[in-house]
């Protein structure tokens, strides 16, 4: 039988097929071949009942994320809070680079706008304008009512697998509850001592929402770029990738090379300075990272 893993918990994989969910385990030879089934995987499995099945084969993936561990994703909703925890363009750009590299369509949703002053809200509108100019869809709810933004976001889910990613405490589960109240997902408060949220989602699960599947995943606050090579990084910044077509050198890294169109557009303000600064920071991290043997190159 062929099905899709919708949840992984405590060594069990819950495989969905034609309205039924089968509790399964992975065969021992998966470990020998260093294969770990992921939520979102399409698999071949066998089962005589709903509680005692085995996964026999994992079909090839179109993409995957390590943190959170999930596969075959169409789009990713990057949930960023405006405050508590504080909005960070650096972290947002890390998420965007990760999704771009895995060919996952990014959507940006900003939460906790009701906590903003009028001035702070105007500042977030400027951030929205910056990222929309690049080509990203950004949802910035009205400070007093977010119904319209929720409706627009839910319209994006039909027939797609969507993953919600972001720091702990930004309101991923709260947002999912608003989109689909019957879920009743647990939410947590912000830790005053740490300035970040307590983890309320303990496992990865695909949940039916608005005629699609949505992944509610554990929060995390940092990302590294273990698979991306230096020459690939600028391709994950759409505006840098477009400008690089006019650089003198084909594999220009946009640092010290002469006749670099990217640096020229940064100087004229056509490329936002913070995006270029983050590119340089990420490039340095990639160039200085420790080797990871067996890294899969794209």
TrEMBL record:
Pfam families: RsgA_GTPase, RsgA_N. The keyword Protease does not apply. It comes from the Bacteria. Keywords: Cytoplasm, GTP-binding, Hydrolase, Metal-binding, Nucleotide-binding, Ribosome biogenesis, RNA-binding, rRNA-binding, Zinc. Binds 1 zinc ion per subunit. Residues 71-221 form the EngC GTPase domain. InterPro entries: G_CP_dom, NA-bd_OB-fold, P-loop_NTPase, Ribosome_biogen_GTPase_RsgA, RsgA_GTPase_dom, RsgA_N. Its EC number is 3.6.1.-. Zn(2+) binds at residues 247, 252, 254, 260. One of several proteins that assist in the late maturation steps of the functional core of the 30S ribosomal subunit. Helps release RbfA from mature subunits. May play a role in the assembly of ribosomal proteins into the subunit. Circularly permuted GTPase that catalyzes slow GTP hydrolysis, GTPase activity is stimulated by the 30S ribosomal subunit. This is Small ribosomal subunit biogenesis GTPase RsgA. It comes from Vagococcus humatus. The lineage of its organism: Bacteria, Bacillati, Bacillota, Bacilli, Lactobacillales.
